[in-house]
Every structure is written in structure tokens, then in C-alpha cells.
């Protein structure tokens, strides 16, 4: 029996929650700094006064609560984005280990933690960095077999089919409409997701992501907005959410 499988249910959930908020702190920093070419690994400091932050200022969730959301020295407000991402990341770990104890749950949590920065960067900047897509794909090919009981061949086919199908859709749209209909990072993201889910669950993920994107575009459309076909939709957000949701849904649908 592996160590993750040997952990009691409650201990696994608590550990995943704790690791989640820690990872969430780094993810929030990455999302805030990387697009502006700031060092992700540099020492954290207050955005108001520039004071370097000590260990007691950097405890995820707890420090901001104790300081009432403001810098200890200058009183400048702390960006609530940090706490929201830490909470979301903690919930990913909590939910994964609560629903799927053991190795499968830890793999699902890891999948969610790798998807989270991609979803946030696409939501805020319409950007899906190649390096994060590559990290997601490599991790899937190396480790994701037990997640949905897929072989390495299944995951390679999923990566090639996922990336290829979206690249073909983007090329067809460009030929048909004479304009870009999809960002260059979207096919790479779906390829990386295919490396986790395998080819079998990929159609479910694409269906959920497409429905989510269409629903969001319809709900957000206002009078005077460009036609639906010309609206920018952060498809990566919906692809990441659909990929995470497909992990528990696919076994239910397929009867695995």
C-alpha cells in the first residue's frame, strides 16, 4: 500500500487543504507578477510602501485576516486576489481528497493545481503560457495513468487528438471567416489536458467547455456588443474547469 493510500481520510483531506493554500499563495504571485515581467521568485513586499514582508505576513489566508486586509506598516490594502486564489486552491485539494481518497485524489488535486494558474491567466490576460502548458502535459504523460485508469498510449492519443482537433478548428475558422477565432494557446492547453484524461474522456471535456463558453458569452452579451461569433471568450477558463469536472463525471457516465 502506498503512503497516500495509507493516510486516514481526514488526515488526507487536511493535508491537501494545507498544501492547497500554500500552492495558492505561489499561484497568486505568479499570476500577478508574470504578465508584467516581474520576478516570480523575488521576495514579497507591500505594494504600497515597498516593505519586504516577513514570515508572519505571509501565512496564507491567516495573515491577511489578522491584519484585516491591510499592510502592518502603511495600512495600504492587500490585494484580495491573494486570498481568493489561496482559498480556491485549498478547496481544490479539499474536494479532491474528500471525494477520491488516496493516490487518485492526490492526482486529481495536482491536476487542479496545475490548471488553476492557466485558468486565471486566461481570464485576466487571455494568455496561456507555453511553459505552463508544457508542464501540464509532461506531468500528465508521466503520472496521470491511475487518475482514469488510462495507458500511456491513451494519454498520447488524447494529447494529439485534443491539440490537433482544436488546431484544425482554428485553421478552418480562419479560412472561413478570414480572422482569428482562437488563441494559439488553446490547442496546446487541450493537448495537455488530453495527456491527463486520455482520448476516452476528451469529448466530454470539450462538450462541457464549449457549453460553458457559449453560456458565458450569451450571458455577458449586452446591447451594442459585437456579434457572438466575434466576441473574445477565454476558452481556457472553461477548458480548465471542464477538465477538472470530467475526472469524477467520466467514470459515472462510462460506467467505469
TrEMBL record:
Subcellular location: Cell inner membrane; Cell membrane
One cellular-component annotation, GO: plasma membrane
InterPro entries: Peptidase_A24A_bac, Prepilin_IV_endopep_pep, Prepilin_pept_A24_N, Prepilin_peptidase/N-MTase
Signal peptide: none
Keyword annotations: Cell inner membrane, Cell membrane, Hydrolase, Membrane, Methyltransferase, Multifunctional enzyme, Protease, Transferase, Transmembrane, Transmembrane helix
Domain Prepilin peptidase A24 N-terminal: residue ranges: 19-94
Span of domain Prepilin type IV endopeptidase peptidase: 110-217
Organism superkingdom: Bacteria
Reactions it catalyzes: Typically cleaves a -Gly-|-Phe- bond to release an N-terminal, basic peptide of 5-8 residues from type IV prepilin, and then N-methylates the new N-terminal amino group, the methyl donor being S-adenosyl-L-methionine
E.C. numbers: 2.1.1.-, 3.4.23.43
Protein's UniProt name: Prepilin leader peptidase/N-methyltransferase
